[in-house]
Amino acid sequence: MFRLRLVEFPMPTGSTNPDVLLAWLLDSMGLVRRKSEGGGIEEGQGALHRIMTEAFLKEPLGGWDAKSLCEVTGLSQTGIHHQLVKLRECGLISSNTDGGWHIHVLRGGSISSAVELVTNEARAVLKLRMKELSGSISQSDERMAVNAPDEVLPFRIMISEPGPISEDDGHLESLARDLGLSGERARIGDSLASKILIELCTSSDPRTILALSDKMGETRSRVGRSVDKMRGAGLVQRVPMMNRIAQDIFVGVMRQFHARGEEWLMTRGGLGRIDDDASKKLISGAKSESLSIEKVEEILSDIELDSQKILLNTLGGRMPYGFRISGEDGDVVTENVMRSTDRTLRRLKTVSQRLEDAISG
Prior knowledge:
Blueprint: E1 3-7, H1 18-28, H2 41-44, H3 47-56, H4 66-73, H5 77-90, E2 93-98, E3 101-106, H6 111-134, E4 156-160, H7 171-178, H8 192-201, H9 209-216, H10 220-232, E5 236-240, H11 242-260, H12 262-266, H13 276-288, H14 293-299, H15 305-314, E6 321-325, H16 330-360
Helix pairs in contact: 1-3, 1-16, 6-16, 7-8, 8-10, 9-10, 11-14, 11-15
């Protein structure tokens, strides 16, 4: 069954070193687990790297079985089997049986052809899975009313064919796990990722980690990890919660007025940086105890958003952020995910061709 984990890494620009190019390919296809993010090429040249270098890149159609792979790599049969399973799942190699032995070849007869086949299959499978998810995303123009800040997150997604659905799993739970949203060691019946996903898919307003945590009955750290995986896959965006700014500024003004007074508010508190009329109204309201969230919202209505953010920060608060699904409907979300996927797949094809040229040259 096809299974590919796409992980976006910076391209090895300008490198013609086959080891560097191969290591990048294996990393980007999620085939190598590094103990540290800063692991170098030497550290990453493990069993899979040796199998590819000593066997499949040298003789792509050599017809490799476990015994011959053990001989050229010095690895145990158990280790060989573990790596071959990963290579078959992601579609780089194909196998047939000959006299009781499984014979393996690099698909297409070259690394560039194999990657070409993998990318075509990955795109088709992901498009199918996103079509499944699209049906759960409610259409909402209000959802995208606030622009998301420009954030560059490494793209990361699992692409898996539909498999058997257990009695403990529903369809959406299985889909969330197949997209890698439930983590690498997801337990059968663990529905946290699917619950968060359906909550965001059906909501028009952003949801905070705290709100999701309370609703799901889970810790904020666990909810946060699930949301981060969805952001990495391009399914979810982080956005400022505009309806919370006035509330947080109101709380900040009242707290700091009682604790530090008017002079502090006008200087270090940041009120002196905004419109003079607005700052006077805020101070006056704080003095008379007549200030309210609604009045703060009215007073700040003509103040630029960036200035409101700075004011909130100087008052000791932080810009409140929530999370939303990344489009007004399923088609837009699918387009966003496929765009990131296509970018990563194009890089795979480019580097695989460079690797082939480096080997043949």
